[in-house]
Amino acid sequence: MQEKIRAAAIQMPIADETDARGNLALGCNLVEQAGTRHPDLVCLPELFTGLNVSSTIPGPETERLGALAKRFGMYIVAPFYVRRPDGLFNCAVLLDREGGVIGSYDKVHLWPWEAPVGGVTPGSGFPVFELDFGTLGLCICHDHEFPETARTLALKGAEVICCATRMPDPFQFPWLELSRVRALENQAYVVSVGCADNDCSTHIVGPNFRAPVIAAVGTGTHIIDAELDLDWLRSERQGSPLDRTPREVPSPEAAERLKEVKSFCYLRDRRPELYTR
Q1: Angle in degrees, 0-180, between the axes of helices 147-155 and 175-186, rounded to the nearest 10
Q2: Which end of the chain is more exposed for a tag (fewer CB within 10 A), N or C?
């Protein structure tokens, strides 16, 4: 597995919620621009082809984006409404470096207008994907507001969590803080990707107390990218400076050791046997 990867997030406008072809063309253009930065992973925002359209897998989205994934040798997360025999799903599709569909994630926590008004069927699980660089988890918008989502993905081994969103005012205002907490409490990188009119929803953060925000933008069309140090992450998950701190009465040495802590193994100290209702 790779020690470091580059992740890119595409913040794009959705001018016409019914223009699937136009939105797909714009998304592909931006993905192509992102590809010149040599990322391992590129993520698009929630329902990037429009709120009032749906597609299938395979379909035009997987065909056109798959060609770009193969051309640049990168993984792509493409979220759009997918219609299957068992219903309509708010879905994030994962394409591999050869352009093939690895799998997909169906949004579990639906926004109020999605069901029953919108007729969207909720997902039923939190899959993770074992990629050549490590383990990836996916979530969509409202999922991010429930700590159980990121925790479940982390317990399944996710090192990077990609969240595609369309979160509106006022819910987007704490969005960056939510990502910082999800990253810290689960010792994972979080890549959040929003649309051009969603301020503060596109950012890349890590589980670092002092410098969690690696990249972030405000409103507008943007492509951000950042290096994610997975080797450091895996090392931090094994222990912390606290493990080497004397256990007796607090001392100056212990206080200095505390200052060394950049991340913390919260998952290791869990007591799930006490967390029942």
Answers
A1: 30
A2: C
